[in-house]
C-alpha cells in the first residue's frame, strides 16, 4: 500500500506527453493550454498522491492535478471534482474541456447571474455540467459522489451503492478554508431561488427611534441555540436593526412598558445590510408574548 501512495513510475510522463501530442486542439490558446498541462502533469506525477487518492490511477491523478494547476485550483474540493471529471470522462475529453475553458477565458470569461465573473475552475466545471451528452450517472458520479457513487475501482465511475458504514462520515472540522472552498463550489453554478424568506425576532428592544412613519429598534443576539448534529457553530453577537411601521409598534410598545418581563415578537423579512453593520429586519408584524397569549385565551365574540 505504501508503494501505491508514493507511486511515481516514469511511464506516467511518457503516457501523458504522448497523449498530449496526439490530440491537437483548435486554437493557439488551446495549444498553449496543452503545453501547460503537459508540464504540470509531469511535475505532479513526481509528487506523492494523498491517501484519499490511492485508488485513482497515477495517470488520472497526474492529469487532474495538472488541469487544476492550470485553472488555479488548489483547494481539495474542486481538485477532487476535477479528478472525477478526468476519471469518468477520460483524458481526451478533459483536455478538450480545458481547451474550451481557456478559449472562453481569453474572450472575457463567463458571468454568474449576479454579474460577477466565474473563476476559470468554475467555467471548466460549468462546461462539464452542461455537456449535452453527460448522462445522469456521469453527473452523479462527478458532482454528487457522496450520494452513493465512489471514485474507486476499474470501470472508472461505475455507480456503487454506498455501504451503511460509509453513510455516516466522520465529524467535520469547520475551518476558514472549509468555508472558502464551500463558497467557491457553490458559486460554480447558478444558485437556487428562494421563493419566501421569513425571520422571527424575540426579545426586549432598546431605544426606539422614530424615522418618519417607521420606528427603528436594535437588538443583539448573544445566545446560540442547540443545533442539529453536524452543523457548524454560528457566530455569537449578531446585530439586528429592525424597521417597524408605527401602527403595529404602538400597541406592542405599550405592552412592553406595562410589563418589564414581556418580550416583543417581530416577524418580517431579513437582509444582510452593511449600512446597519448587521442584519436589517423589515417587520411585517409586531406583537408581544403577553398580547399573543391574551389573544389565544380570549373567547371569540358570539353573534346574538
Task: Outline the structure in words.
This protein has helices spanning 2-5, 11-22, 28-45, 58-71, 76-89, 91-106, 120-129, 136-143, 176-186, 246-258, 289-297; strands spanning 199-203, 209-211, 214-221, 238-245, 264-273, 278-288. The chain is α+β, with helices and mostly antiparallel strands. It folds into two domains: 2-186, no CATH class; 199-297, OB fold (Dihydrolipoamide Acetyltransferase, E2P) (Beta Barrel). It is elongated, with a radius of gyration of 28 Å.
Question: What is shown here, in short?
Answer:
With 304 residues, the chain is α+β, with helices and mostly antiparallel strands. 42% of the residues lie in helices and 15% in strands. It is built from 11 helices and 6 strands.
What keyword list fits this structure?
OB fold (Dihydrolipoamide Acetyltransferase, E2P), alpha+beta, 6-stranded mixed β-sheet, 304 residues, 11 helices, 2 domains
Which SSEs are present, and which pair or pack?
Elements: H1 2-5, H2 11-22, H3 28-45, H4 58-71, H5 76-89, H6 91-106, H7 120-129, H8 136-143, H9 176-186, E1 199-203, E2 209-211, E3 214-221, E4 238-245, H10 246-258, E5 264-273, E6 278-288, H11 289-297
Parallel strand pairs: 4-6
Antiparallel strand pairs: 1-5, 2-3, 3-4, 5-6
Helix pairs in contact: 2-3, 2-4, 3-4, 3-6, 4-5, 4-6, 5-6, 5-8, 6-7
Could you say which overall geometry the principal axes of the C-alpha atoms support? elongated
Secondary-structure element series: HHHHHHHHHEEEEHEEH
Q: What gyration radius follows from the Cα positions, in whole Å?
A: 28 Å
Low-pLDDT runs: 1-28, 45-49, 147-167
Strand runs, count: 6
Helix content: 40-55%
The structure class reads alpha+beta
Beta-strand residue fraction: 5-15%
Helix run count: 11
Question: What would the average pLDDT be, to the nearest integer?
Answer: 75
